[in-house]
Design goal:
Layout (H helix, E strand, L loop, with lengths): L3 H39 L2 E3 L6 H4 L10 E13 L2 E15 L5 E14 L7 E5 L2 H6 L12 H6 E4 L3 H7 L2 H9 L4 E5 L2 E5 L6 H16 L3 H10 L1
Length: about 230
């Protein structure tokens, strides 16, 4: 049997793998440059290196503790709209095993921003309503409903303290979120984590910070005073 076609296919396959690798590297470098320019324009610091201790600093957020090989990179820190912030990319790995016992590693990436609210916060999670959330309503796994039917259809909201959810998501805040880009927003302790489904562009980081800081700014002063009194 002539081995030439097999060798040619192997070489072509190897060339494709190398080509995809080079393309991915160049895209990552282009995005890194974009983020560096954006942070410089906003007076933020930029560190592209990997931080394997990132989760220990922000351990209140469960999504930073999933899987293995966890690290943050492209970390941006500073002040935005008067708030201390940290924007970042994040990686973690999960593993699966098929029926033959072969183990496969899956790599997951997403971007997020963490904003220090400057006041004590209570747990609250806001995300887009999904198909399975609607099914969950029929088996008693409903989320918090609001006076705005459109907001309740669009967003899935969970909080141990319903009054806190209503305090944060008043009419003006609901209207603002309905008009804003969609993110998952989580309140814990004194911080808010806002994440996107994948890695973000500089413009998407800007949008996430804008949504988060403006939402925090809409918390009524009476609620802020109560939080500070009860801390």
């Amino acid at each position: 049997m002539d081995a030439s076609p097999v060798i040619i296919l192997f070489i072509l396959g190897l060339a494709l793998v190398i080509g995809f690798g080079i393309f991915g590297y160049l895209k990552a470098e282009e995005r890194k440059k974009e983020l560096a320019e954006w942070t410089a324009g906003r007076g933020l610091s930029f560190d592209p290196s990997s931080d394997y201790d990132f989760e220990s600093v922000y351990s209140e957020f469960d999504c930073l503790c999933h899987g293995s090989s966890r690290y943050a990179y492209n970390i941006m820190r500073g002040t935005y709209s008067g708030y201390s912030i940290c924007a970042f990319d994040y990686h973690y790995a999960t593993h699966s095993t098929n029926s033959k016992g072969k183990r496969t590693t899956h790599h997951h990436y997403f971007s997020g921003v963490i904003v220090d609210a400057g006041i004590p916060l209570k747990p609250l999670r806001i995300r887009s309503e999904g198909f399975f959330d609607k099914i969950g309503e029929f088996i008693g796994l409903d989320d918090i409903d609001f006076e705005s039917a459109e907001f309740s259809r669009t967003f899935h909201v969970k909080a141990p303290d319903r009054r806190w959810a209503y305090d944060v998501l008043h009419q003006k805040a609901m209207e603002f979120l309905l008009e804003s880009p969609r993110f998952t927003i989580e309140f814990q302790d004194r911080r808010v984590l806002t994440t996107a489904g994948g890695t973000s562009s500089a413009g998407e980081f800007e949008s996430a910070l804008d949504v988060t800081t403006r939402l925090l700014g809409m918390i009524p002063s009476s609620v802020r005073s109560e939080l500070n009194e009860n801390r």
